[in-house]
Request: fold
Amino acid sequence: MGFFNPALETCPRPALQALQARRLARLLTDVPEHNPFYRSKLRAAGLGSPATLARLCRDPRGVQALPFTTKAELLDDQAKHPPWGTNLSVPPEVLVRQHQTSGTTGTPLRWGDTRESWAWLASLWGYQYEAAGVTARDTIYMAFSFGHFLGYWTALDAGMQAGALVLTGGGQSSVQRLEAMLEHRATILLCNPGYALRLAEIAAHRGVRLQESAVRAIICGGEPGASIPATRARIESRWNARCYDRIGATEVGHTGFTCEAGQVHLIESEYLFEVLHPQRLTPVKAGEEGELVATNFGRRAMPVIRYRTGDLVRLGEGPCRCGRSFVHLDGGILGRADDMIVVRGVNLFPSAIENLLLGDPAVLEFQASLARVREMGELRLTVEVDPTRGQPREVAARLANLFHRQLGLRADIHPVSPGTLTRSEGKTRRFTWTEGREPNEAPREVDG
Ligand SMILES: [Zn+2]
Reply:
């Protein structure tokens, strides 16, 4: 276990902030000259003059005077100026990679990278690999269908740079992946948290004891499960391995990693982060929930300035015991602003439901939906119950009681037999919300 860049990771806060101010100044010198999208945004905000921008960069807090960037705005710009939009500071022929967001409920957002920005993205994985103790002696297995998401492609390059042997599981069935992992004695597994549990379930059916496999660390991304306590505990006990949560998105890059103390740190040497009140958009204190807003410094071709990620987080109070000076998040990403639902006046994130359900060892899998009963929203949970760990009716009653006590909510719980609910290989689709959401919300997007 170690630091990828000890000088930066333990840099005293004033020096770190001075570095951020210098990098912000560089960005704001480049963008007005080369990037039509940000040039016009800055001008519209009355920030067209280089002297004004230079004044802002004396302190990283100067970023607060800059306009926000939203995904809707970027999508609109790409629609008007296909294929890249105008957020491009280099000629398109300099780009070497293109990735995009999932676009499951809308148009995907395309993102281009140059050799330099690709190297920068791969270097961000270095923080996670070092914290997880990955060395040239490790074999990394990537249980992931290599598609248009950015995340695991850069993990592949970074794994090679760490000298590890990297095996890719694209185009393979879950059984083939398990067999490959065992045959090559993979020590590190990369996948979505829901899929780590799915693989464990398949292994159990086939009589494979994963606890005895060589896998010692599971690095998750794509969805927030690895920071949900019950989900993380379940992954760790099924695999007898440490579980790490790596966060980020295609359009922003890899913003954070989990340290050896189990905290998600934001990579502050490469980004300027803000945590803002979701409605007022003013800074919140450590310990308070807010939206993560990011400005990146290493992606010159297509940068983001004050990008509203839509992720709700809470900054941890005090320093982390790992010794890093980068801020840490209390509980990783708590949820997406657009995923919060309101059931009978109770604000609820899917992660809270998942934490309660997977905290019960009798629950194998679940699906949640909202129904309208007598003009009131009602939470409906279909829960697969392991009959060796409890009578279905008793488990349903126990869970209903738990939801009432912990969330103040009546949940309608339907127990079903093991294997009834469909499992997904990628993003876990357990939640179907048709009530309690505002219309015209941005679609949920996380990189896989
Ligand atoms: Zn830490």
Notes: Residues 13-34 form the longest helix (22 residues). The first strand starts at residue 97 and ends at 100. Residues 259, 261, 263, 265, 320, 322, 324, 328 surround zinc ion (CB under 6 Å).
